[in-house]
Amino acid sequence: MSLLEPWYLLGLLGLFLPWMLHRFSHHEPPEQAFPTTRFLEATTPPATSKRKLRYWLLLALRVLFLALLCLLFAQPWLRSLSDSADSESVRLIVVDTSFSMRAEERWQATQEALGSVLSELDEGEAAQLFTYSGQLTALTDITQDAPLVKSALTQVSPGFESADFGELMRRLDKVAGDIDKSVSATFITDAQRTNLPAKMNTLLASKLSRFSVVSVQGDSPVNYALQAEAITADTVNARVSVTIYASESAAANDANADVMKRVQLSMNGRELGVQEMAIGPGESKVIHFDSVNLPSDISADMQVNFVQNDFFPDDDQVSIPVRGLNTIDVVLTSVGGDIDEQARVFMSTALETEDDVRVETRELGTALAPSVRHAMVFVDQLESIPDSVNEFVAKGGNVLVLPRTLSPSSGSSFLDDPMSVTTIDLPHALALGDIDWFASRFYHSTDMSLRDNDRVLLGLDSSQPLLVERVLNGSSNQPGRMLILNDALDGFNSDLPLQPAFVQLMQHVVQYFNASNALPTKLRIGKDLFLPASTQILTPAGDAMLALDQLGDANYVRIEEPGVYTVLGTNSSDKVNVVLNPAESNLSGMGRDELDAWESRHDANTQSGIEQSNSDSANDENATGLARNSISETQKNTLWRLLLPLALIFLLVECLLANRLLWVRRDGL
Amino acid sequence: MSAAAASRYLKPELLARLGTLELVARTVVDGVLIGLHRSPDFGFSQEFAEYRAYNEGDDLRFVDWNVFARADRMYVKRFRGETNASVTLVLDVSASMGFGDPVSKHQQARFLVASLAYLTRRQHDALGIALFDDVIREFSQPSARPDSLGKVLGMLENAHVGQSTDVVDVLTDLHATLTKRGLVVLVSDLYTEPESLLTSLQALVHAGNDVVVFHILDKQELEPDIKKISALKSLESGKSVIVDPEYLRGDYQQRMQSHCEALERNSAKAGADYVRLTTGEPLDNALVSYLQFRERRTR
User: Fold this and answer.
1) Tell me, what's the pLDDT at A554?
2) Closest CA–CA distance from residue A40 to any residue of chain B (Å)
3) Between chain A and chain B, how many beta carbons pairs sit less than 8 Å apart?
4) Bridge partners (DSSP) listed for residue B215
5) What is the largest CA-CA distance in chain A?
6) How does residue B31 score in pLDDT terms, banded at 50, 70 and 90?
């Protein structure tokens, strides 16, 4: 156990006080004059042995109470087992290993920066090295062995994943909270502006006493990256869409300078087409290859690349599968009335954003015919979904059920403080975590009763479900899927249909309905891929990623390299195109002033940190307040929770004893 | 002015501010007499009792010349109070009398004795005093001399509480000392055995004395207001006793009450008057009791 404020132990000198009071206090009862003792009868005091016992008990309680008070003020805390280093503080050194760190000489600069950081550690300061690229990975334990830390970095290199600085700070905060010492952090990064979170107030780890950023960004010119998608309807001709991304540049002479970029398609070493397009810094443009004549073997991957690589070639070429075009027919229908026109427009627009989705509005009688596979059904009450819909699912149909009108909770009114999506079922194959729900607001609280086998995929504040997957009759092997969206899409009770998230949600829903094994066709790198049981996944090089003993169960696989992965099922073979995050290709970095502002958020002693927080949202102010108190909070949240109740118990017992309940009196008798 | 109204001015707290005992006594006595609607000349000694044949040496002033004119024989008029009463005030000045707040029993007793002395002299009775604790400390034989009041008040002024008390021995000594029958007024807190007191009082009464006992107590003696366990130290013996407040609220008060009742009973049995007086209580009641007692005894 260590003490953060050991000088408060001087208060232990005060322990003599109760001892002296007990020793020198007037133990005899107060004496009063009286005319005569003729009629007085001496009272019988408690037996001497008992009196002494209680006397010492009282004294012990009082001494212990004072000692606990001193300990409380001294703020004791226990040294955690993992914190074996005999150090006064810990520096968490985090190295950015996101994709952008592969550019130029950034990784070499990072290693040099690590050496500098280690050499500048304070005396008695230990360090722990982490890498961060979507996940925070510890490379070392907490140690004062600087060479060990430095050598640990030589074992790793930047990957292909992307970074999110807000997520990094959240994870750092958790790590710092587990260390019972003063924790500071240094982040060695290229400080990409595209890695900044949408909410700036998340750039704060309140448990850190200090935070610094060592930037290894270079004066990079414009970087160009591309991503592509190839679709064929007849396996002979394909339509290829190539999106070219041009990063912003810090170099002044690159500003507004359009560059002609030539894009080449090839397959099995055979060139399929070349196009060029002028693109300026910060722009993204799409080149369409409308009719690409495919070779006979279309199972091979198509290569898409710039004819001339730029200074960062890692994002200048991609391999993509040629995906067969299967038109997905979705039927819109309604039970008990017409579909609200607004809801129909919202739904149709969102669904038809994808080229291969075709939407048709039908009467209920024909909508759920055996030939229909996917349907969006508006019903009167979510609690009473018609049997015809259930039968449709039981026969293999997929349905999204929505209420035609919302049934508000009893007594609910228009919420001044609207609800938002707070619960997301990330592992579900709908990949709902890829959708930005931040802007969606829900203004009415509605009733929706869940059944035992309902799986809440999206939830609002107060645990109100928004999207539910229902398994009928408790059967996990039902042929079709039923999703229930607890929103009428009227644009009044929520702004969900007006948000981009709705379009993405509908696309994900259709893909989920259409996928034979719920596998996505495209996956952003760093995301977990859900693999059903009895499936194997092959890397682009053809290596199996799962061991034999893992094949029996469903697995989550984290894909860390881009490329076309093959998922082998019992009777199927699906390709998943794992793509880079284009944000990582935008190498433009944050300015020094921005980095200073970020750092100052964690400096509780400087006014600049406070001023910075004032310039942000109210949430930022609260967060900075947390930062200001982070040290004391960390220190107080150690043992006081244990000691304070103990002290109160001592006080209570002392009161009970001293108030004659136990025949012990404050007057010593 | 009624007695009740007069008593407003007789509270011992006020009397204590008057300074000299003479002033205290005069204030008390005048107040009481005015309250009783009696004239200052009130006196049973002026009342005619009988005729007696003249003997040689009788004062010719008391010869009833009217009777002599009718019967040609000389008779002398005799009055009830003609033989001046001899009043001996016996004051307990033991240490226990020092108890009481804001007016101690000692103070209260001095006021009472001074008032009685003043009253006695107004009635031209012989006045004597005895101050005692375990023995008689000071004694003055009853005297009808005009300066007897001053002498008594002077002794009272200088009276201080002494040691332990022994009423029985003192009364026995007093009995032997008194040369003339008369009125004996005992003022004490009477911490003695009631049976012993009975014996002593009976001896005095059998010797032809009229005895009145003023039992002076403090309210704290009767109903001690003590909230916590305390060591009560005797003013006379110096001995301390640790006493539980519960006892003081219960058994002690019963014992004290029994003691007082025994004293009263034994006083009556001995033929003495018993008047209980608490400190802080106006003296008019005590004086009225005394006057009534005097009146009763002289008829």
Assistant:
1) 66
2) 6
3) 81
4) B188, B276
5) 130
6) low
CA distance B291 to A485: 111
Question: What residue of A is the nearest CA neighbor of B97?
Answer: A35
Q: Which of A309-313, A549-553, A575-579, B135-139 has the lowest mean pLDDT?
A: A549-553
Contacts of A368 (CB under 8 A, 6+ apart): A331, A333, A375, A377, A388, A389, A391, A392, A397
Q: A485 burial class (0-12, 13-18, 19+ CB within 10 angstroms)? A: buried
ipTM: 0.77
Instruction: Tell me which residue of B187, B182, B162, B180 sits closest to B109, measured CA to CA.
Output: B187
pLDDT of residue B73: 87
The C-alpha atoms of residue A106 and residue A552 are separated, in whole angstroms, by 42
Cis ω on the peptide bond leading into residue B12 (within 30° of 0)? no
Q: Does B71 touch chain A (CB under 8 A)?
A: no
Instruction: Indicate the DSSP class of residue A544.
Output: B
In the three-class reduction of DSSP (H, G, I as helix; E, B as strand; rest coil), residue B76 is classed as strand
- The distance of Cα A95 from the centroid of its chain, to the nearest Å, equals 19
Q: What's the helix, strand, coil split of chain B in %, to 5?
A: 45, 20, 30
Distance CA A5, CA A631 (A): 13
Which residue of B97, B218, B241 is in closest CB contact with A40?
B241
Cβ–Cβ below 8 Å for A43 and B247: yes
- Helices A500-514 and A341-351 pack at an angle, to 10 degrees, of 70
| SS3 readout for A185-230 | EEEEECCEHHHCCCCHHHCCCCCCCEEEEEECCCCCCCCEEEEEEE
Confidence of residue A131 (pLDDT cuts 50, 70, 90): very high
Our CA dihedral for A29, A33, A39, A45, rounded to 10 degrees, sits at 10
Task: Provide, as residue numbers in chain B, all residues whose Cβ is less than 8 Å from the Cβ of A43.
Answer: 229, 242-244, 247
Domains of chain B: 3-39+84-298 (3.40.50.410), 44-79 (no CATH)
Under DSSP, is residue A383 helix (H, G, I), strand (E, B) or coil?
coil
Residues A603, A611: Cα–Cα separation, whole Å: 11
Residue A467 pairs in a beta bridge with: A458, A485
Q: Which residue matches tokens 């408790």?
A: A474
- pLDDT value at residue A661: 44
* A669–B235 C-beta distance less than 8 A: no
Q: State yes or no: pLDDT of B295 exceeds 90.
A: no
- Give, in order, the Cα–Cα distances in Å from A633 to each of A625, A636, B105: 11, 5, 69
On whether any CB of chain A is under 8 Å from the CB of B249, the answer is no
Residue B121 in tokens: 């002299």
Amino acid in position A175 = V
- Name the token pair of B159: 């009276």
How far is Cα B217 from Cα A38, in angstroms, rounded to an integer?
14
Q: Return the SS3 of A574.
A: strand
Bridge partners (DSSP) of residue A248 are none
Instruction: Tell whether B262 lies on the interface with A, counting CB pairs under 8 A.
Output: no
Other CB atoms within 10 Å distance of the CB of residue A609: 22
Cβ B230–A36 below 8 Å, yes or no?
A: no
Q: Check whether B37 has a pLDDT greater than 50.
A: no
CA nearest B226 in A: which residue? A32
The nearest CA of chain B is from the CA of A25 a distance in Å of: 15
Long-range CB pairs of A43-51, under 8 A, 24+ apart, other chains included:
A43/B229, A43/B242, A43/B243, A43/B244, A43/B247, A45/A669, A45/B242, A46/A663, A46/A669, A51/A668, A51/A669
- What are chain A's domains? 2-28+45-78+640-658 (no CATH), 89-217+590-636 (3.40.50.410), 224-320 (2.60.40.150), 328-520 (3.40.50.880), 521-588 (2.60.40)
pLDDT of amino acid B213:
92
Separation of alpha carbons A517 and A531, rounded Å: 9
